[in-house]
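Sharing a chain and its predicted structure for anyone who wants a worked example. Both blocks are below, sequence first, C-alpha cells second.
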Amino acid sequence: MKEFITSYGTILTIISSWTLVLIGWAIVFNGTKYIASRNESRSILSELSRYIEVRFNESIEFWSIYDKDKIDKTKEKTYFKKNALAISRIKSCNLLLERYGLQVIDKKDFITIKKVLTLSPDNELLKSHELFEAFRENKILSSNRLCNEVLTSINLAFIDLHPPVKKPILDTLFKKIELKYSFLSKEINYIKPYFMGLFFSTTLIFTYFYIGSLIYPIK
C-alpha cells in the first residue's frame, strides 16, 4: 500500500483534491438550493397568511356592522366577490406550497374557510331577527377563530419542515466542554470564534504533509 501511494502519490493527491472540491461544491450547491427553496416557500406562505388575515379581518368588520334593513346591495355583492377571488388565490397558494412539501390547509379546513367567507344569509334568515343575529354572530366568531387557527397551523407546518436553529452547533459543543472544565470558561469563550478556522486549517495542512511524507519520505 505504501509503495502504491509512493508511486502514484501525485496523481492520488490531484484526484483526492478534486474529489474534495467536487464534494464541497455539491454540498454547497445543495445547501444553496435548500435555502432558496425555503425562502421561496416562506414568501408564498407570507402571501397566503396576508390573504387570510385581510379577508377574515374584513369579514369580522363586515358582519359587525351588517344591518339587513339598511345594507347596500352593491357593497354586499362586492364583498362576496372579493372573497370568492381570495378563495381562488388561497387555493393556488396552497397548491404551490404542497410542491415545497408543505401541507398547510387540508380539504376540510378549505371548505370551512370557503363557507365562512362566501356563505350569505338566505331569505328565511333575513325574515327572522333572532335567526339572523345568531347567523351574524356566528360569522364574526368563526372568522376570528378560523383566522387564528389557520395562521397558527400554516406557520407550524413551516416550522416542522424547517426547524429553527436554537443554538449554533459550536455553542452546544463548547457548552459541554465548559460544563466539564468550568475553570477554563473564560479561555473557552475567547477561542470560540477561531476554533473552526483553526480546526479546518490544521486538518488540511496535516493531510497534505502526510501525503507528502509518503511520496517523499524523509531519509
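Comments welcome. Helices lie at 2-7, 9-64, 73-99, 107-118, 123-127, 129-161, 169-180, 185-215.
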